[in-house]
Each structure stands twice: as C-alpha cells, then as structure tokens.
Amino acid sequence: MQLLVSVRDADEAHAALAGGAEIIDAKEPARGALGAVAPSVLAAIRTAVDDAHPLSAALGDAPALGPLGDAVRHAAELGLAYVKIGFCGIRARARAAALLATAVRGAHAAGTGTGVIAVAYADAERVGSLSPEAILEVAASTGARGVLLDTARKEGGGLLALMDCSSIVHWVRAAHEADMVAALAGKLSVDDVGVIRALGADIVGVRGAACDGGRDGRISAARVRALAEMVATRSGAQRPAAPSAACSAMRS
C-alpha cells in the first residue's frame, strides 16, 4: 500500500516528501473535497516533486469543470500520474459515463500516460451523487485507471464511520477485478492506516492527519513520517481472505 498526501503548495510538497510520502496529491482544501489548486500552483508543485515520486491532482467535480476534456488534458500535460474527478450532483449513470469518458479522452490526448481516477463518495446521498458501486461500474466501463472512495463533506464522519468494512472490502475487490487501482480516503487518522491496509487498498490518502492544525493547517513532515511508518509496518501484510478478516482488524 502506498501513502498519498494531499498538499496545497510547493512548500507542503517538500514537507510531505521529507516525511516519506510516496504519492503527492495537489489539492486546495478550502475549495472542498476535490478542490483544485491554481494552475500556477500546480506547476510549482510539479517542479517540487521529483520524477521518482508520482504526482496526482484533484481537478474538482465534473459538472463544475467547464470543458472537461481540456481541463484534464492541460493538467495531464504536466506529466501527472493521476487526475481525480468527482461526480457531485450527478445521479444519472449515462451522464457520469459520458463525463468520465470525456476525461479519459482528455488524458489520452496529452500523451503523458496520466490516468483518470473516478472519485466515489461514501456520503453520496448527502451530495446528490451516484453510489460508490455505480461510480465503480462507470469507471470500469470507460477506461478509468482507478477509483477513489472518499467523503465529500469533511465536517461529518469519516469513511470508516460512514461505511461498514464488509462493503468497503467488496468495493475494493470489485475494483481489482476490473483491473483498477483502489484508493481509500476520508478523514482517516494514523490509527486507521492498519485498517485501510486490511481492507485491501492500494493507496491510502490523507490530508488532515498529515497537518498541524487539521485539514486547514499545514503539512508536517513529522506527522507524515508517523503515517509512513505505519504504512511500512503493515507493508508485509496480505489482503484479507474474507471481509470478516478486515472487520476483525477494525475491532482490534
């Protein structure tokens, strides 16, 4: 499992790298769960992150992105590993599929190998989005590189409070069966890292747990280091043979 840390600028990127983050994710937390940083900030983060570390970027929810294909292509041209797209306010599968297919074409047009990550929300009902299962199916049918299960609203409960472990395990397995990367995030703490590993995720994403002062604070290399150590401690673990194994990990 890899540790992804969301940063809002180049200075935070340096701190995250110093702490041992494996994937740097550009995101402006003041703009919501998938708040995009300004293009100039994304370029500065790209400069700060060496080629040995993958860089991803949150671009926002698809309905708010205007010419979606162009937005994805411009970001992908920076050589990002991933771009993340959400579907807040979209309840029709056909509409989500059309938008995601446009995003995938935009990424391909850049010619940099950037993959599109479709973001599903554990609190989908609260934000008028398709269910996590539906987003996963749309992602698999449109050529997305992977899926992320996150929370849209950060003032409520986190992922592990909103969804039961068996549902998350089945969701992760479905992503793997579709040959997609499966990432988990959503108000996760350092103590949640072992649980996320047990649930079978390829990537664990954090922001607040890596900051002094919470999600709106600043990335702390020491906090990232603690998270990275937890990931490394669990690195030899195998995916659970059954959902009950992951449930046991949550209760332990």
Topology:
Blueprint: E1 2-7, H1 10-19, E2 23-26, H2 39-48, E3 55-61, H3 68-76, E4 82-86, H4 93-110, E5 115-121, H5 132-142, E6 146-150, H6 159-162, H7 165-177, E7 181-184, H8 193-198, E8 203-206, E9 211-212, E10 218-219, H9 221-233, H10 243-251
Describe the structure.
This protein has 252 residues and is of the alpha/beta class. The protein contains 10 helices and 10 strands. Strand 1 (2-7), helix 1 (10-19) and strand 2 (23-26) form a beta-alpha-beta unit. The relative contact order is 0.15.
Give me a quick take on this structure.
This protein is an alpha/beta fold and 252 residues long.
Features:
alpha/beta; globular; 252 residues; two-stranded antiparallel sheet
Question: Largest sheet, order of strands side by side?
Answer: 1-2-3-4-5-6-7-8
Instruction: Compute the number of strand runs.
Output: 10
Number of domains: 1
Helix content: 40-55%
| Overall average pLDDT | 91
Q: What is the 3D shape?
A: globular
Please describe the biggest sheet, giving its number of strands, its sense, and whether it closes into a barrel: 8 strands, parallel, barrel
CATH topology: TIM Barrel
Overall radius of gyration:
17 Å
| Low-confidence parts | 236-244
Report how far apart the termini are.
20 Å
- What's the architecture, going by CATH? Alpha-Beta Barrel
Oligomer: single chain
Strand share of the residues? 15-25%
How many helices? The count is 10
CATH domain class: Alpha Beta
SSE pattern, N- to C-terminal: EHEHEHEHEHEHHEHEEEHH
Structural class: alpha/beta
CATH superfamily: Aldolase class I
